[in-house]
C-alpha cells in the first residue's frame, strides 16, 4: 500500500511519475465511467447530516479534484497539494467499494428493460404485497437459504424503497391505531443516528422516539429496534429492554458473511434487510422485510401504498438480477467461474480491517472495538467480525474526536449523533479504494493530538 | 366495435369463431408478454381502496380468465360465460392503455443498466436535490418546454417515488415547524380520494385534513390542493379559498395534451407531475415537483431523504429514456417516424370519449360532465377536454351508483370517496382496450335501473 507522507521527501522525478499516474488513472476512470460521472465522486454529502457548511466544503473539494484532473500537463506540486487538501468524506456509508466486483462480471449482470415492460402499478395481485415483483421475491428467498442468515419459511415479504421506508412502515404497522398517546420507540445507544429523526420528523401521534433502550423503564407497550451487527459499533445485539410488551424490529442490514460470522438463521417477528449493504447497489433503493404476522405485513403494505403507491419495479427487477448473480457466484464457487461475491467482499473487508488495525495500533492516539471470533456457518470456519463501519475512539485529552479529525480533513460522524460521547466517531469502511488509502495515509500522519 | 349482448343471440358457428378468436388473442398475448405476465392483468386491485372482499373477487376473476385461456379446445359456452362473468375493475387509474405505443417503438426505448452502474446513493452533489439524476432533470425540462405546460426557468426540480411521495414532501415542507397546532390541508370536492387518508394516516402534528375547500372558512394559514384538470371530474381548476395565507400545491398530473387543451404554461409556486399519467409507466414510480422557493425545495428533499434516502436511479434513468422518446416523437412528427406519442394518445382518448358518449347518450340512465372546448397551444387548434377518468352520474332513482354498477360486475370508485354524493362514480379510461370494450358492452346492456 502506497503511503504519502505529509512532508515532501520525493524528488521531482518521483513527483512527476506519481502525478502522471494519478492523472492518467483519474482521467481513465472519468472516461470509463461515462454517464456515471456524478455518482462515484468520493467527496459527497452524507445521507442524513446534510448542512450548508459540509455541502460547500464538498463542492470546493470537487472543484479541487476537477482542476487536478483537467490536464496531464498540470504541475506535480498542484496535484500533491490537491491530494493533501482533499476532504475525505467517510461520514456516510456509501457502499461504492463493491463496484469493482460488478465491473468484473461484465455483461452478465446487465439488465435490459423494454419500453413497454413493467408499466402497471401491480406486480402480483395474489400477494398481500401486491407491488412485490415475483422474480425479486424468489431471489430474496434463494439467497437467504443459501447464506443461512434468515428463516424465510412462513414469512411474508414486503418490499420497500430501501429499508428506510420499511422502517417507517414497521413503526406504522406496529403502533396501536387508537391509543391515547404515541408508543415509544427505543434502541440501545449507540444507535443508528437517523432513528430519532426518522421517528419524530412528522410529529406522529402514533409513535415517538423514546431514547436509549438501556435506560428505558416505562410500563406498557413499546417498540424496540435491534440492529445486529450494530450500526455504528459492529457488535452483535439482542433485545435490551426484554419486557413482555415489547414489539421488536430487527434491522439486519449487516448480517451478511462479509461483515460478521453467520451463526444461525435469524427467526424474528419482523426483520429488515437492504440491498445496498449486501451488494452495494444503494442507488436502486431496494430493501425488504420478512414478516411473521399477516396483519403486520398488510399494514406495512398499506403504509407503502399511501407513501409511494408501491416500489419501483425497474429496481426490483435489477435487484433480482444482482441477487441472482450473488447466489450463482456462491453455487459456482468451486468451478472455473472465479471467486464468489462473498469471498471477494470478505477478503476486501479482512484486508481493510488488517490495514486499519496496523495503523491504529502503531500509536496510542486512537482505539478500535475488539470482537470475539465465532463459527461462520457460511464459510464453515471460525472468523472475526469485520464491520462496515469503524467505531473509532480518540484516546487522551481529545474530547471531540469528530472535530479533531475534521482538522485533518477527514469527515466522520460524531458519537453524539449515535446517542453517546463525542470521543467516538463512526467512519465508513465501504468507500472506494482511493478514499480508504488516503484515509489511512492521513490517519498514520497524525502524530499527536 | 364488437358488442356482446347479455342474451345469447349467436349461432354456434358465431360463438365458435368468437371463442377461437378470443382464445388465440389471449394466448398470443400471454406468450408475447413473457415475464410481464403478472403485470398486465386487467382485473386487479385498486391503489388505495383495497379490501379483502375486492381482493378475493379479483382472484376469482383471474382464475376464471386463466381457465378460459388454458386450451383452444375449451367449449364456447364456458368462454362466453367467463367473459360475461368477468369483473371489470375500473376503480383504479392504471394507465396500461399506453403499452401499445411503447411496443410499437421496438428496441429504441429499451434501457440497459450495467451491473456496476448507479450504485451510489448520490446522483449530483451540486444539486439541492442530491439524488436527482441529471439526465432525467434534463428530459423533464425539455418536455415541459416542448409541450408548453409549465414554466421551468427559475425552478428547482425535486424527484420523488411517484407524485404521492412528493405530495407528502410538500405537506412537510409547507407546514410551519413550530406551530401550536397542525395546519389545515383543504381541497375542493370532488377531490382525489386519497388526499384525506394520505394527509391523516400518520396523525401528524404538522398538518391535518381540513376538508372541502368550498366550505373552508377558518382564519390563518392553510394548504390548498389544486388538481387541474381535476381528478375525478376532469374540470380545469383554480384556487377556491383565495385568501392571503394560503399555501398552494398544484397537482397537474393530467395537464398533458392527450387529456386537456394546453392553454398556458403553469407558473405556480409548487407543481407536481407524475410519469405514470403522461407515458403510462406507473410501475417506475417516478414523479417530480417544480418548486419556486429554494427553502421549500430543500425541505422537500429532506423529507425524501428521511423517507427513503432518495429515489431509484434505475427508474430515473428509465424515465429519462421514455421522456426523451416522447420529445423525440414530437420533434420528428412531420418526418417519416410515424405519429408522435401525444398524437397517438390524443387520438386514443378522443375515440374512447366518443364511444362512451354514444353509449351513454343512447339511454337516460347515466350522464357525463360537459366540457368547454379551448385553444390548445400544443396541437394549435381548438379542442375539447377528454379526461383520464369518467365522472359518471346515475340519473333517476339510483342513489348508490357504485353498488348498482357492481351488480353488473363493473368496479368503480364511489363519489363518496371523493367527498360528494354516491350518485357519482369515477371510472378509469386508461385501462386496456379489452377492458374498455367490455365495459362499454356491459354499460350498453343495462336497460333499466
Automatic annotation (TrEMBL), chains A, B:
Partners and quaternary state?
Answer: Homodimer.
User: Does this UniProt record's set of keywords contain Kinase?
Assistant: no
GO terms (BP aspect) = amino acid metabolic process
Source organism superkingdom: Eukaryota
Question: What family, per the record?
Answer: Belongs to the alliinase family.
Indicate what this protein is called per its UniProt record: Alliinase C-terminal domain-containing protein
Organism in which the protein naturally occurs: Vicia faba (Broad bean)
Cofactor(s) listed: pyridoxal 5'-phosphate
User: Which SUPFAM superfamilies does the UniProt entry name for this protein?
Assistant: PLP-dependent transferases
Report the leader peptide range.
1-21
Amino acid at each position: 500500500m502506497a503511503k504519502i507522507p505529509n512532508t515532501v521527501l520525493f524528488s521531482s522525478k518521483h513527483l512527476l511519475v506519481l502525478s502522471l499516474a494519478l492523472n492518467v488513472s483519474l482521467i481513465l476512470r472519468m472516461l470509463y465511467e461515462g454517464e456515471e460521472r456524478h455518482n462515484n465522486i468520493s467527496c459527497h454529502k452524507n445521507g442524513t447530516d446534510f448542512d450548508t457548511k459540509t455541502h460547500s466544503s464538498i463542492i470546493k473539494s470537487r472543484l479541487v479534484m476537477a482542476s487536478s484532473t483537467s490536464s496531464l500537463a498540470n504541475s506535480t506540486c498542484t496535484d500533491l497539494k490537491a491530494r493533501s487538501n482533499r476532504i475525505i468524506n467517510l461520514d456516510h456509508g456509501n457502499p461504492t467499494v463493491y463496484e469493482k466486483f460488478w465491473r468484473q462480471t461484465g455483461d452478465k449482470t446487465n439488465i435490459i428493460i423494454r419500453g413497454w415492460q413493467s408499466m402497471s402499478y401491480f406486480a402480483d395481485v395474489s400477494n398481500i404485497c401486491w407491488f412485490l415483483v415475483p422474480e425479486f421475491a424468489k431471489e430474496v428467498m434463494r439467497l437467504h437459504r443459501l447464506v443461512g442468515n434468515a428463516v424465510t419459511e412462513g414469512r411474508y415479504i414486503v418490499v420497500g424503497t430501501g429499508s428506510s421506508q420499511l422502517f417507517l412502515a414497521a413503526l406504522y404497522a406496529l403502533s396501536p391505531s387508537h391509543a391515547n398517546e404515541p408508543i415509544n420507540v427505543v434502541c440501545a445507544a449507540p444507535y443508528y443516528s437517523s432513528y430519532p429523526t426518522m421517528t419524530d420528523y412528522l410529529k406522529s401521534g402514533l409513535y415517538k422516539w423514546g431514547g436509549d433502550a438501556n435506560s428505558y423503564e416505562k410500563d406498557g407497550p413499546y417498540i424496540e429496534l435491534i440492529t445486529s451487527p450494530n450500526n455504528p459499533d459492529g457488535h452483535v445485539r439482542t433485545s435490551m429492554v426484554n419486557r413482555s410488551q415489547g414489539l421488536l424490529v430487527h434491522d439486519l442490514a449487516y448480517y451478511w458473511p462479509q461483515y460478521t460470522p453467520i451463526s444461525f438463521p435469524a427467526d424474528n417477528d419482523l426483520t429488515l434487510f437492504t440491498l445496498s449493504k449486501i451488494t452495494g447497489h444503494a442507488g436502486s433503493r431496494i430493501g425488504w422485510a420478512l414478516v411473521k404476522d399477516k396483519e403486520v405485513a398488510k399494514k406495512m403494505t398499506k403504509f407503502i401504498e399511501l407513501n409511494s403507491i408501491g416500489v419501483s419495479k425497474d429496481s426490483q427487477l435489477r435487484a433480482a438480477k444482482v441477487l441472482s448473480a450473488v447466489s450463482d457466484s456462491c453455487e459456482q464457487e468451486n468451478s472455473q467461474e472465479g471467486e464468489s461475491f462473498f469471498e471477494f467482499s470478505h477478503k476486501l473487508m479482512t484486508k481493510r480491517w488488517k490495514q486499519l488495525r496496523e495503523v491504529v495500533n502503531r500509536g496510542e492516539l486512537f482505539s478500535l472495538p475488539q470482537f470475539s471470533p465465532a463459527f461462520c456457518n457460511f464459510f464453515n470456519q471460525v472468523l472475526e467480525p469485520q464491520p462496515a463501519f469503524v467505531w473509532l475512539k480518540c484516546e487522551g485529552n481529545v474530547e471531540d474526536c469528530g472535530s479533531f479529525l475534521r482538522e485533518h480533513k477527514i469527515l466522520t460522524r460524531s458519537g453524539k449523533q449515535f446517542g453517546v460521547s463525542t470521543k467516538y466517531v463512526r467512519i465508513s469502511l465501504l468507500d472506494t479504494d482511493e478514499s480508504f488509502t488516503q484515509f489511512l495515509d492521513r490517519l498514520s500522519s497524525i502524530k499527536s493530538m
